[in-house]
Design a protein that fits this description.
By secondary structure, the chain is an all-alpha fold. The protein contains 10 helices and no strands.
């Protein structure tokens, strides 16, 4: 028996609600999921309906996501890269630097904590190890100045505990 268009739409909406019940999605990623699994449903209608009910909000998801990445000790470039991969709109990605949580965040202490964890408390003097440590911090999204500061600074271990 063939399903009516209304029933196909309802199944697509139920699927979207199921997905959102398990984790947050951006509009674009949710649209992809709906199109993949319910090609006969109209994803734009479903998404607009979910937005109207308050179940889907890219801005609040972005704030929570950025905060979770800051807690994982990542710098702004890495956060933007991860947001891009998640399918956030370009405007939200570009606004990360102006978010209150990012402006108030202490990236130097995050870099120092990572340096302490991987390389110990003493300043690194060996050039190869120093370069490796700086590269590791750069990959985490810290600026070069912050990475160099962390590598060259003596860390007082009781600072982070």
């Amino acid at each position: 028996m063939e399903l009516s268009q209304e029933e196909k739409q309802q199944r697509g909406e139920n699927y979207a609600l199921y997905l959102l019940g398990r984790q947050d999605y951006t509009r674009s990623k949710l649209r992809e999921k709906i199109c993949q699994n319910h090609p006969d449903a109209d994803p734009d209608k479903i998404i607009n309906r979910l937005i109207n009910f308050g179940y889907l909000n890219d801005e609040s998801f972005a704030e929570r996501y950025v905060q979770s990445l800051l807690n994982q000790k990542m710098g702004v470039p890495k956060i933007k890269q991860k947001m891009y991969a998640k399918g956030f709109p370009r405007e939200l990605i570009d606004s990360v630097s102006s978010m209150e949580s990012v402006q108030e965040h202490d990236f130097k202490s995050d870099a120092l904590a990572l340096k302490l964890r991987f390389y110990g408390a003493e300043p690194i003097v060996d050039q190869k190890i120093k370069q490796r440590a700086i590269n590791k911090l750069l990959r985490k999204g810290f600026s070069f100045d912050v990475a160099r500061y962390a590598v060259e600074t003596l860390v007082e271990e009781d600072t982070f505990f």
